Amino acid sequence: MIQPDLADPLTGQFWQSAREGKLQVSWCGTCDQAVWYPRACCNICGGTLYWQTLSGQGTLIAWSEVTGSLNPDFNGPYLTGLVSPREAPYIRLVTQLVDCRARDLCCDMAVAVRFRELQPRRGAAFVAPVFTPDIR
Ligand SMILES: [Zn+2]
Prior knowledge:
This protein is mainly beta. The protein is about 5% helix and about 35% strand.
């Protein structure tokens, strides 16, 4: 079952910030770069991490359309993707792509964050950052 734990010391802040409409990633205060996934300390220098709020703009790296029941808590079809945030293009966020079709997507296209409440079959609904093509 997918159920974010807002009290989890490593990942709780990510989910709490999503509830507040913010996209945050863990960031090293010493080497000044994103550290993703969240860890107890920086995997490069051992420095202390804090939560950095990002703009929510990014680049679509890859995607896939899930048509079956890959995860028993979420029925397909839906689009899943890898997004690199503008401020940290060297990391990948695993996310869902919304308000678009697979045929609308292309590599390196600009995407922007949205926040959606997801309802798994079991457990409580939760807010997650998702992305959509950023057509301006
Ligand atoms: Zn560091």
